[in-house]
UniProtKB/TrEMBL annotation:
It comes from the Bacteria. This is PrsW family intramembrane metalloprotease. The keyword Hydrolase applies. The chain crosses the membrane at residues 21-42, 48-72, 84-110, 122-146, 153-171, 209-230, 237-254, 266-286. Keywords: Hydrolase, Membrane, Metalloprotease, Protease, Transmembrane, Transmembrane helix. Residues 473-492 are annotated as: Disordered. Residues 482-492 have a biased composition (Basic residues). It holds the Pfam family PrsW-protease. Coiled coil: none annotated. GO terms for molecular function: metallopeptidase activity. The lineage of its organism: Bacteria, Bacillati, Actinomycetota, Actinomycetes, Kitasatosporales.
Length: 492
């Protein structure tokens, strides 16, 4: 008896507005138009000379801030296109929304109340925080919704929000510094006594992190929501909103600090902004260390299945070892090999995070497909990455210690803290030898003409042997969802 397939054999084609190139084109056009409009508005307010001066001064903190957020994202680096989009959205779309909405609201309040001074204060302390933080949060929301694979936790939320706010602050600094330069031209002031110097000191030297600090609170809310399970729909909706409200409140306090008296700005800066900046910095660094611990704890399952070498979970959980591996690959096999090692590290990290989400019941319906994609990516790069990672493992390994009686017996890795018995790797291509595994061959066989480096003074017992030709077949894909707590099948 014939039966119907569980899904259509010819799925319907998406509509034209659902195609990727249409969305990319529309988004690029929107950002380009916003950039041209904001450029014209800022130049109109500051003049050509003021615009050029403001541009030259406002660009100074941008590379430092981008580098700081990129450093935070080194454990599982996201694609550059997301960062470019976030910066462009903050510098163009969010800045344009803020300028138009703030100006319209302030003028309407001034007309309604016949109090221009009060309208300016109300606009700076109430209208501006609400409008600006909402405009910046839109970029975080878009990445959260349409780039869900790249948005997996708190660090991703912090980086996305921080880069968006950096772009917004860049455009705003051009406006403020350009207007300050125009004021100095009218008054004839110059040097350290000028308004331009004072504005530069306050906005670029003292508080380049102000806007990123505000918006990072929104990013943390989205990051915690990304860690929540699908059953907690209310929590996933309320957490980003709570982060946005906190960002608005901190922004309002910062803008209203001038109303607290002569030393109100310094009081808010020293008693509130700096401690909050330190606390959030500690939170992000702690989260990054937690991510490295996740790599160390989740990847051994793939070691047991034969996808990874025994030393790789420990090596990939150390940023120092990762850097050594990339340097070794670049020195002995060129830039392409170093790029392949960096990609191997990133894919392995994504695999660890994916398995953790599955084990905790937070994985999406595409868990198996995504896991297969990551395993395929690792397998295609293994020949280039494993010698470099093996070198990094030897370079960062602690010196050998004599085992206790009855502990760390020959042929076992228990004495090195990995907990993998040598017999577990029999049949995976790692021949069990008395005293440990032989080291992987270096890059001598890749045709680059580099001599093999001298062997180290000692060989750790957990360094794997090269895969023999008959064992280079790909391991079986995991058939059990990690949430079921079933072990991964071993390679025959």
């Amino acid at each position: 008896m014939a039966t119907c397939p569980p899904y259509p054999t010819n799925p319907p084609r998406p509509h034209w507005w659902q195609r990727g190139w249409v969305r990319y084109g529309a988004l690029t056009t929107l950002l380009a138009i916003s950039g041209l409009v904001i450029l014209a508005l800022v130049r109109e307010q500051t003049g050509t000379q003021g615009f050029l001066v403001g541009l030259g001064l406002a660009v100074l903190p941008v590379p430092l801030l981008i580098a700081a957020f990129r450093w935070l994202d080194r454990v599982e680096p996201g694609p550059w296109r997301n960062l470019v989009f976030c910066f462009a959205w903050g510098a163009c779309a969010a800045a344009l929304i803020a300028i138009i909405a703030n100006s319209f609201a302030t003028r309407w309040i001034a007309t309604a109340t016949a109090d221009p001074a009060g309208a300016d204060t109300l606009g700076a302390t109430v209208i501006a925080p609400v409008v600006e933080e909402s405009a910046k949060a839109a970029a975080v929301l878009l990445v959260f919704l349409f780039r869900r694979r790249d948005f997996t936790g708190i660090v991703d939320g912090v980086v996305t929000a921080g880069v968006t706010a950096t772009g917004f602050a860049f455009t705003e600094n051009i406006l403020y510094l350009g207007n300050a330069f125009g004021t100095d031209q009218l008054t004839g002031d110059s040097g350290f006594a000028s308004v331009t110097a004072a504005t530069f000191f306050v906005r670029v030297v003292m508080s380049p992190f102000a806007h990123p600090l505000f918006t990072v609170l929104t990013g943390i809310g989205f990051g915690i929501a990304a860690l929540s399970t699908g059953r907690h729909h209310l929590r996933r909706a309320l957490l980003p909103l709570a982060g946005l409200l906190l960002a608005m409140g901190m922004h309002a306090l910062w803008n209203g600090s001038a109303a607290f008296g002569e030393y109100g700005f310094l009081a808010v800066y020293g008693a509130f902004m700096v401690p909050c900046f330190g606390l959030l910095t500690w939170l992000v660094i702690w989260t990054r260390q937690r991510e490295l611990r996740t790599v160390r704890e989740e990847l051994p399952a793939y070691v047991m299945a034969g996808w990874l070498a025994p030393a790789e979970p420990h090596t990939l959980a150390s940023m120092h070892a990762r850097r050594l591996a990339r340097q070794y690959a670049r020195r002995h096999a060129g830039k392409q090999a170093a790029r392949a090692v960096a990609q191997y590290e990133a894919y392995a990290t994504s695999l660890a995070f994916l398995r953790q989400r599955g084990r905790k019941g937070r994985a999406g319906p595409d868990f198996a497909v995504r896991e297969r994609e990551l395993l395929d990516a690792l397998w295609h790069r293994r020949d280039v990455a494993r010698p470099a990672l093996d070198h990094a493992a030897r370079a960062t390994a602690p010196p050998p210690v004599a085992p206790w009686p009855g502990y760390g017996t020959p042929g076992s890795h228990a004495g090195y803290g990995y907990g993998y018995a040598a017999a577990a790797y029999a049949g995976y291509g790692y021949a069990a030898r008395p005293g440990g595994f032989a080291p992987v061959a270096p890059y001598g066989g890749y045709g680059h003409g580099h001599p093999a480096p001298a062997a180290p003074a000692f060989t750790p017992a957990w360094v794997p042997a090269p895969l023999p030709a008959h064992a280079r077949s790909r391991p079986a894909y995991p058939s059990a969802h990690p949430a079921h707590h079933q072990p991964l099948p071993r390679r025959p």
